[in-house]
TrEMBL record:
Superkingdom of the source species: Eukaryota
Annotated segments matching region Disordered: 29-93
Protein name: CsbD-like domain-containing protein
Protein species of origin: Podila minutissima
Residues forming coiled coils: none
Amino acid sequence: MSERMTNTANSYIGGAKQSIGSAIGSSDLAARGAAQKAQADAAQRFADDKTRKEGVGHKVEGQIQQTVGSITGDKSMEARGHANETLGDIQRN
């Protein structure tokens, strides 16, 4: 299971525990659910930040590859540069 799916599942499960705990008057269950949801949400924010940083790296790498490929006439390197720049744009958004 991917990190994003795990975080999303844990966030929903934690939220459900929190709601059920509140509904049945179990403050312990509600608190455990709130903690699980908060931990999953924080983990997802961290994972999203990591992906955005990787995207910046890919974008810069792609721009360098395009420039070097253009200067040296290496069309293959230019194409890899375009691909890396596009990957970086996707990761940053």
